[in-house]
Amino acid sequence: MAKVPLRIIGIGRDIELRVVSFLTRARQATEHVAFVDLGSEDETAILVEEVGCSLLTSEASDIVSITRCLKESDLEPAENYLFIHVNKEWSLREFPLHLNRSRENWDVYIGLVSNNDEEESRPTQSDLSASEFQHASVSFAGLEELASAESESTAHDLSDQLRVRVIESTTLPSLPQRESLATASRFAQLFIWMIESRHPLFLFGIPGIVLFVLGYRLSGGVVNTFTELSTESIGVTLLTIAMTLFGLFAMMIAVILYIMGKQVEQVQAQYDGPRGGQ
User: Fold this and answer.
1) Distance between CA 184 and CA 178 in Å, rounded?
2) Based on the domain organization, do 141 and 193 belong to the same domain?
3) Do 67 and 160 belong together in one domain?
């Protein structure tokens, strides 16, 4: 049976607010995406099936139990597997780093979660069946080796024919300067997109702000300029009031259209997601 090039497996429990974004990002890298549910009590499992990804269940979250669960499933074998534990310690911006790690041809590459309660020990000496891991990149041979590993096995107990590395997982360092440049670039792209796509925030929001500010400023000048009630003073006053109200209504319309557009996009994504996975 031909193996698929890469299969990404998410692991988690009660992450209904994050599971869709993770699966969507994973499916941009490969069509073969699965999720191992650890006993969620919310709608995590339902959302996984609605997106169109394979759903597996496991009671344990260690790498040995997860690989056994995957081996015993009906999923097609893959040349490489990328396991990611989606929890509060993991961020979606770390996904590209893990994806690049899966391309380094390691048979077993595991990032263990550090436990400060235990005495300091090398990750390679940790019991794989009793240690929590954040991410792992495993080849088909590595999957077979881990699935058949005995209890209390460490990295040293795996086959010498495999390229094995077990490290302590660390969070991605923050890069404020790069993030600032990326934010500025996104704002520039957003402004150009608003002009080209006739976005409501551009069509109604900016004119509304201009009219509202001008009307508010002119209203103060009208009060100080006209001391007598006349046709001219009434006309200018009504004009400033109209400018202020038109500006206020334009800003309200821009916000309403923007919110409605976002809701329509979410509804379309919910219906298009399952179809794309079939």
Assistant:
1) 10
2) no
3) yes
Q: Which structure tokens are listed for 235?
A: 């006309």
pLDDT (tens digit, 9 = 90+) per residue, 119-150?
556 777 888 888 889 999 999 999 999 999 98
- Distances in Å between the alpha carbon of 60 and those of 23, 36, 63? 21, 10, 9
End residue of a domain, out of 113, 140, 168: 168
Cβ proximity of 131 and 112 under 8 Å: yes
Model pLDDT for residues 180-201, shown as the tens digit of each residue: 555 666 666 666 665 566 666 6
- Report residue 26 as tokens: 């994973």
What's at 104, amino acid-wise? E
- Please state, in angstroms and rounded to a whole number, the distance separating the CA atoms of residues 16 and 226: 62
Return d(Cα 165, Cα 110) in angstroms, integer: 7
Residue among 218, 236, 239 nearest 228 (CA):
236
CA–CA distance, 34 with 12 (Å, rounded to integer): 12
Give the Cα separation of 133 and 138 in Å (integer): 13
Q: Which domain, by its residues, includes 31?
A: 4-168
